[in-house]
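PROTEIN DESIGN WORKSHEET
SECTION A - STRUCTURE
LENGTH: 452
TOKENS:
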């Protein structure tokens, strides 16, 4: 990009734009990276510098940027028609996508309710669950249970079931009351391997059981991020926990709401993270990868029993919820194109070699000083940085190690976006083993620079 144009844009960025999750004062004397092009696994800035998109553009992108089949789906749908309302009208992309989602998601989910982002997918789930109990005479079921460290979005309903104090505590006066449960964080295992997993799951499940025994009659649903709590710090959780909460939710009549906004569509090595545990939720939230990370769209799926409780001659039993862009046809067409790619290009099968290469690369990174708790689930990997990794002594916060790694990442051609002192990759499914090896080598250089 021409230098003057770049300067002009960045000045206007500073003059007019308020970026999300950003302390804008951090940018008082420096610029945001201005992206001019995105192709495959890479983003290019206005100076032509290339960066690996190791976080898949906020955990969204699946098949790489600018995939020709995705672009063609957008063009074709725009040639047919653009946005139309989805209440009182319907359209082929919305219908066909719903059919595919019911086919692909864990068994028992039969109905698809569209919205347009991850937070709204969660809002829909919470309201759907709440209203179900109102319709079925269990009007005392009005609260939700959620986990420590959980993140379900930034709208107030989603924040009410959020467990990351740094983001959520300030808003408590605005939120509805919920029950916060301990997270089955695998880092807390006292023994390695399967025994440690069982122990972590059992401890966290005991808290769920106790809560349900005492208050299950008043709880509408329990919301979880299956297998992997993302924004809370890339907390990986045992499959036995998911199986356990499934069993407890069924026993105590509490909806199990699986938020797969981040984990859905292959990121964890299987299509949906619930599959790792062979578990089917009552309500499932999807977004991000739903459109291969290209268009805003979300879907909340539920069991027929929930849908049936709203299906009535009584208009008051309508689910009064909707968004302007609910079921946007262009987004639905893109989602269908992405699902076709999964099948035709055997995307999940091919990703397995990359997942193995990632495991291998992590073994190398695990040997570096200051690195601990190296963990992986499919194409997601994370590790924590400590001043003294052996004693788990953290860096003093003022060293802002995460922020320093973010900067060092740019120098090494990587978009890294650490969560505090936790560094992670959230790789697109199109990443190849060689890419992973290159990303790990660049990360190692960035680590050495920041930590030496
Ligand atoms: C598990 C989970 N749920 C919900 C959301 C919210 O999605 P959105 O940012 O599209 O509102 C996120 C976003 O990161 C997420 O990770």
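SECTION B - SEQUENCE
RESIDUE ASSIGNMENT:
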């Amino acid at each position: 990009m021409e230098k003057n144009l770049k300067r002009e844009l960045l000045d206007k960025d500073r003059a007019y734009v308020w970026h999300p999750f950003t302390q804008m004062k951090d940018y008082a004397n420096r610029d945001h990276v201005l992206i001019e092009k995105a192709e495959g696994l890479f983003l290019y800035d206005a100076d032509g510098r290339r960066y690996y998109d190791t976080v898949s553009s906020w955990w969204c992108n699946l098949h790489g940027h600018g995939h020709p089949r995705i672009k063609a789906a957008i063009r074709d749908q725009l040639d047919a028609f653009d946005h139309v309302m989805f209440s009182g009208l319907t359209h082929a992309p919305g219908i066909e996508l719903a059919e595919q989602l019911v086919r692909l998601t864990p068994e028992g989910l039969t109905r698809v309710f569209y919205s347009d982002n991850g937070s709204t997918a969660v809002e829909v789930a919470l309201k759907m669950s709440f209203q179900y109990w109102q319709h079925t005479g269990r009007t005392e079921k009005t609260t939700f249970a959620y986990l420590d460290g959980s993140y379900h979005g930034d709208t107030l309903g989603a924040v009410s079931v959020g467990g990351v104090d740094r983001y959520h505590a300030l808003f408590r006066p605005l939120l509805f009351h919920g029950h916060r449960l301990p997270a089955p964080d695998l880092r807390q295992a006292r023994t390695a391997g399967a025994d440690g997993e069982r122990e972590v799951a059992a401890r966290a499940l005991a808290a769920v059981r106790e809560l349900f025994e005492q208050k299950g009659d008043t709880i509408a649903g329990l919301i979880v991020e299956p297998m992997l709590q993302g924004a809370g710090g890339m907390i990986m959780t045992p499959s036995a926990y998911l199986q356990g909460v499934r069993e407890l939710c069924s026993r105590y009549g509490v909806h199990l709401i699986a938020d797969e906004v981040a984990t859905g569509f292959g990121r964890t090595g299987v299509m949906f993270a619930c599959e790792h545990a062979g578990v089917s939720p009552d309500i499932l939230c999807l977004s991000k990868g739903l459109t291969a990370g290209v268009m805003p769209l979300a879907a909340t799926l539920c069991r027929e029993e929930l849908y049936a409780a709203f299906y009535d001659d009584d208009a008051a039993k309508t689910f009064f919820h909707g968004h302007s862009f609910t079921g946007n046809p262009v987004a639905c067409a893109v989602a269908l194109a992405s699902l076709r790619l999964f099948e035709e290009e055997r995307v999940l099968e091919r990703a397995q070699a990359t997942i193995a290469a990632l495991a291998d690369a992590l073994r190398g990174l695990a040997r570096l000083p200051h690195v601990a708790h190296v963990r992986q689930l499919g194409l997601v990997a994370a590790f924590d940085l400590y001043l003294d990794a052996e004693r788990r002594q953290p860096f003093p916060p003022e060293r802002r190690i995460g922020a320093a790694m973010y900067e060092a990442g740019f120098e090494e051609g990587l978009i890294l976006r650490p969560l505090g002192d936790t560094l992670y990759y959230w790789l697109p499914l199109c990443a190849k083993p060689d890419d992973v090896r290159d990303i790990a080598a660049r990360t190692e250089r960035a680590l050495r620079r920041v930590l030496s």
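SECTION C - NOTES
The mean pLDDT is 97.
The chain is about 40% helix and 15% strand.
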